[in-house]
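I hope you will forgive my troubling you with a question about protein structure. The record follows directly beneath this note:
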Amino acid sequence: ACLVWIAKPQIAKVIEVMSPHLGFVMPLTYVKVGGTSMIFSRKVFSWNSICLWFEKGHSQVRSPMPDTIISSALPAGMNKWNKNPESILRWMAAFTEVGDVVFDPFTGSGTVPAVAKMIKRRWVAFEIDPDTARQAAQRTEQTQIPLFVHEEEQTSMMDDLLAQQEADKGVMT
């Protein structure tokens, strides 16, 4: 699977450019409550961001996921393009397994690598701005599996959580 965050006015062009290489599946939507962005060329305030889902062959969604994620506003000091980590986690967990590689060519402040680390995915990330890249590297380095237990127990508890998620797949209809 290839998930591509895109500015709404560019949706048709991106689908056209990507389609010879990957099949378009559907748009996914990220809604940020209390936050808007202006599409200046159209004088429209937008409450959501679009993430286009492409795939090579048939990608396997590993756990049920929503096509729309509604998120609260980000904490102060976050990059204006940042997505809520809990929201990114939902889609990343649905498309990847422990040990898979996640690629983020425009990582910004490092939300994708930080989430990948939290759920035991490997990552490759790039950022052109040196200051932002340092911020992303520091954020990722400081990220831990978000459980309030001793470090030795974190890995075991995360393994149990992921195993339960796998078991739940057979129960969901």
User: Anything to note?
Assistant: The radius of gyration is 17 Å. Confidence is low (pLDDT under 50) at residues 149-154. The helical segments are 11-18, 85-95, 111-118, 130-142, 151-169. DSSP finds five helices and eight strands in the chain.
